[in-house]
Design goal:
The chain has about 80 residues and is mainly α. About 60% of the residues lie in helices and about 10% in strands. It is built from 3 helices and 2 strands. The protein has a two-stranded antiparallel ribbon with strand order 1-2. A hairpin with a 2-residue loop joins strand 1 and strand 2. Helix 1 crosses helix 3. The N and C termini lie far apart (about 25 Å).
Length: about 80
């Protein structure tokens, strides 16, 4: 559950910097953020496990995080 909370916060941050971002690019930026942090500090930001999606790496829990953020009215992802 903690991972979903962290995914939500990082998703909101990325969306604030890249308005209108699509889901594919969001997944890529989440991956790059997590692995960039891991390379520098030995710890990822979200602690998410990444799976091989059809279009690239995707964190487990992203669907849940996006649904919660949409339900809260904080984002709209197309």
């Amino acid at each position: 559950m903690e991972t979903v909370v962290k995914l939500k916060e990082l998703t909101l941050y990325i969306i604030s910097k890249c308005p209108g971002i699509d889901r594919l690019r969001l997944s890529l930026y989440l991956f790059m953020s997590d692995f960039g942090s891991y390379a520098e500090s030995g710890k990822s930001i979200t602690d998410a496990v990444y799976i091989h999606g059809s279009d690239g790496p995707e964190p487990r829990g992203l669907d849940e995080a996006i649904k919660e953020l949409e339900k809260e009215g904080r984002i709209e992802i197309e």
